[in-house]
Amino acid sequence: MRWWGWGDPAAPPALPAHALGFLRENVGVAEQPRPPVALEHVSVAPSSLGESLLAKLRAIVGSDGVSDTHEQRVLHAAGKGYPDLVRLRAGEPEGAPDAVLYPADHEQVRALLELCESSSIAVVPFGGGTSVVGGVEPLRGEHGGVVSLDMARMGGLLKLDGESRTVTVQAGMRAPALERILAAEGLTLGHFPQSYEYVSLGGCAATRSAGQASTGYGAIEKMVLGMRLAAPRAEIMLPALPATAAGPSLRQLLVGSEGTLGVISELALRVRPAPAARIYEGLFFEDLAAGVQALEALSREHALPDVARLSDEHETRMSLALAGSGGVKGRLGRAYLGARGYGEGCLAIFGFEGGEEEVASRRSRALELARACGGLRVGRSPGQAWLHGRFAGPYLRDDLLTHGVMVETLETATQFSSLLSLREGVARAIAAALEARGTPGLVMCHVSHVYETGASLYFTLIARQNEDDLLGQWRKVKEAAVRAILDGGGTITHHHAVGRDHAPWMEREVGAGGLRALRALKAELDPAGIMNPGKLLGAAGLSRPPG
Amino acid sequence: MRWWGWGDPAAPPALPAHALGFLRENVGVAEQPRPPVALEHVSVAPSSLGESLLAKLRAIVGSDGVSDTHEQRVLHAAGKGYPDLVRLRAGEPEGAPDAVLYPADHEQVRALLELCESSSIAVVPFGGGTSVVGGVEPLRGEHGGVVSLDMARMGGLLKLDGESRTVTVQAGMRAPALERILAAEGLTLGHFPQSYEYVSLGGCAATRSAGQASTGYGAIEKMVLGMRLAAPRAEIMLPALPATAAGPSLRQLLVGSEGTLGVISELALRVRPAPAARIYEGLFFEDLAAGVQALEALSREHALPDVARLSDEHETRMSLALAGSGGVKGRLGRAYLGARGYGEGCLAIFGFEGGEEEVASRRSRALELARACGGLRVGRSPGQAWLHGRFAGPYLRDDLLTHGVMVETLETATQFSSLLSLREGVARAIAAALEARGTPGLVMCHVSHVYETGASLYFTLIARQNEDDLLGQWRKVKEAAVRAILDGGGTITHHHAVGRDHAPWMEREVGAGGLRALRALKAELDPAGIMNPGKLLGAAGLSRPPG
């Protein structure tokens, strides 16, 4: 992974020339490209770990299990959020871990946590490192040092129970590695977040991740049947079970714990038969309300596709404008839709996966329901184009940053009855915040991840960067968006998690009592507060409430 | 509700004469019926609450909101588990609450908890009072007194959001009352535990209840979108949301908390369109393994009925023997099945609910898959008979007890790969324990509540009572069953909850670390340990671990 951005360091630029032209026209771009600094110019303070501690760490994980090279420290200095990339590209991360540790199994994790606790060293669990909310920032809190605990060596398959369609893995296993193993058995996990190419499964569980096909396959919380947690002062082992009524759900307590309670070391996950058929296609709706009405009807009738994604008018216009090959093609497509009265309409992608016969029957029913809400089929090419580009967003972002363009995404979920008003409120708040900075931008949204009672909203904003205050610009926009989300009845995050960026709003999300409950839990498992300080549990990231 | 058993006090005996004959022949019955003692002969110690505390309680809930009559105290002296009924019928409950409190809203609950905390009075939340695991026993722990907090006055509808198909209610609302309200709007919750006629919705949430149609509608944990908790030292308000990634799930922490963290005062629940069509029917499988194979296939193909219930050979034989009208009728049915080679087979009930067209297409697919595993359709009468008698079990139990017959049910869940061996291990352990007491009995089992990776097992055991040691007999059998469950990879409870009876096994279920985490939570919300002492959190029911 590129230390300053996304993907293979050797990957070519992903932004097509006509897209750059579109951006120049609509938001403005920098006059000169602004590439990241060279790796050797990234400024990082010397590691603060003494030789005696390093020796103890090496005694646990072996000498090749501890790294404090400049490159490794920079690679673990941040996640992949907009502020992370801004800082990294400028060569100025806020900090870097004093060392990167690579445990090989649960026992090594336990031993590392005990040593770090007794040495007052903060520990930041690191899976794919793809957090976009500051979840892997190497904050040390009140501790003397901070290490990144990279799960890369814990990628083993522990058990595959075909009859129960359950796989048990070490938590550092990457999603694509698991899919390769499962494919050989005719199975799939079906978890495809945009960060799929890099995420670890433990990271997905720790951040309560939802994949793009979660409407069909469910978010990770539905997939986790059992898990093992190594905490500084405890160990929790929950075997794979299909269901239990034995008290509060500890499984659902560890899912979403974001490394603040301990390290998820092992996971038992539900898998499914690999789909024999996959059909992805496009539909057009007259406006967003009509599209939402269709999603509500599909949800009511349990007829939702596995991927159901509905762009608002702005996102639709943008994707038609940017579509090179594939998609509802450029001017031609727009003319066709315009002639049928869908000129300013909304594009939806419906994706169906499963057995041949099952897909055929589910699809025919879904299309019938969509048609009743004015849904117009526009063929498979938009679906194929979306599938083809489903992991492309983070690559494009790097190019946009090079051209002086800010791009940020944020997401929420709410009940159906608030969905349209929430979209409008958040979009307006973002637009106003951008204008107030003198950088009016494009604000787009899509509905996806559809549930029985509501759905998620995913916003993308694009604007020219405030060159002299990149982070201030971002912060203003982010704050305006989150306030509008909370005021409009949404959750602060549907699938990006809390991390550092959303932590100040956790109290509004779950209330003072809810936050106290979570902090009490942390105080029991991690009384010294070494686990991922500054994330999840409130603005100050304290393990205990002040006072 | 009868203070000594189930249902309307005026209801006639439910046990048909031929069933009594069957029992006499197979397990033995008492020579003389043994009815419960009269209410006035139930022995209950005088209430220990002083006049000054009673005055303070009345100041919060009004003078009609506090009761310490003999009848009310006896009605709240126990739940409806086998040991409860044995004690009540003998007129010897272990204890009774010093008073029964009837708050009218969340604020009154909060005020009561504060007063009880400062007065060192234990509080036992009481919904329908139907716990079969000792969940509402009025244990006082180390406190000076104990009150039952009856939610009967908190039965109001707070909000019905039709577009989001979400209803918000006070937690004391009974399930049938909600269904009546929803029916008028063409909606249903779809939560039908065997105790349906009496349960409160808050009680269902607090005990992580699963209804008989949970394969289709989901257990209560899937229905709860938001909730409000009043705890002695905190208040938690979680709004209705379809999904969120904001940290560990506090919703799933409060679901299953069994009154040990606080009182669930309000609930937002997902509802569904009321089914236009309902088809319940019977299928026969050659043996249990074939039936399980069919359920696995249906689960794999997402083709499960809403109710999928598969009896083992023993339960099948018993229901054929006991079927009066309806069912696969007596000798005739057995002859028919015998002639087709299903003489010792297993009866399954499949129930489909939904839109006409949807039910037709799902049913045809499900029956096709079942047929491939040898499933033989035996018509709708077994399905109708089951539907008709679905809430009858507890009524029958009262009659059995009158005739000196012990009947107990217990349940678990496990992954498919362990399902058959777990059934065998548990059935054998129960049978051996009964034989060791000199009361060999009938042990039956059915598979129900089917998931993607496994299913629940529900055991019923019937034996002649050990007249001189009713509770000792029960305890031996229960212990043998739970040990076999844990040894065989099952959970200690699929839907009966933990209560007092399963509390000693919680540590084996979630581990010492898991139990410590839950106790830390309790210590934060209820530091004095007044909430439902002796339940859920370990054998001693301590709010903090010993030592």
Provide structural commentary.
The structure is a homodimer of 547-residue chains. By secondary structure, the first copy, chain A, is of the alpha+beta class. Chain A folds into 4 domains: 42-150, Uridine Diphospho-n-acetylenolpyruvylglucosamine Reductase, domain 2 (2-Layer Sandwich); 157-273, Uridine Diphospho-n-acetylenolpyruvylglucosamine Reductase, domain 3; 277-388, Alpha-Beta Plaits, CATH 3.30.70; 502-547. In chain A, 37% of the residues lie in helices and 20% in strands. Chain A has helices spanning 17-26, 51-61, 70-75, 82-89, 106-119, 175-183, 201-206, 214-217, 220-223, 251-254, 288-300, 313-322, 330-339, 356-372, 381-388, 393-402, 416-436, 470-487, 506-525; strands at residues 66-67, 99-101, 121-126, 145-150, 157-161, 166-170, 187-188, 224-231, 234-238, 263-270, 272-273, 277-285, 307-311, 346-354, 376-377, 405-415, 442-450, 454-464. In chain A, the strands form 4 sheets. The first copy, chain A, has a 7-stranded antiparallel sheet with strand order 15-12-14-13-17-18-16, with helices on both faces. Chain A has a 5-stranded antiparallel sheet with strand order 5-6-10-8-9. In chain A, β5 and β6 (166-170) form a beta hairpin. In chain A, α2 (51-61) runs antiparallel to α5 and α11 crosses α14. The first copy, chain A, starts with 16 loop residues before the first helix and ends in a 22-residue tail after the last helix. At the A-B interface, β8, β9, α10, β11 and β16 of A face β8, β9, α10, β11 and β16 of B.
